[in-house]
Design goal:
By secondary structure, the protein is mainly α. It has one domain. Helix content is 69%, strand content 0%. It has 3 helices and no strands. Helix 1 runs antiparallel to helix 2. The longest helix is centred in the middle third of the chain and has 24 residues. It is elongated and about 50 Å long.
């Protein structure tokens, strides 16, 4: 990335929160108009609720491990 002068940024929590609010509104509008779409969204949410809870509980803190090995992530040159 540094060799080619490419900058990579992580979306901030504040921006992501606003994107999710916007997405909820878009999905809400479609759900009201299309019963089949509503059924699909409900199924996806039920699946995500089960799977992501396990994933979030079980996954280690990779950033902690990375920084233990290479130092502060913001200062690591790739």
């Amino acid at each position: 990335m540094n060799q080619h002068k490419v900058n990579v940024y992580q979306t901030s929590d504040e921006i992501l929160a606003q994107q999710l609010k916007g997405w909820d509104k878009v999905i809400g509008d479609f759900v009201k108009k299309d019963a089949f779409f509503a059924k699909i969204v409900a199924s996806q949410k039920a699946y995500a609720k089960r799977v992501m809870k396990y994933l979030l509980m079980n996954q280690p803190n990779y950033k902690l491990a990375y920084e233990n090995e290479f130092g502060n992530i913001a200062k690591v040159k790739i």
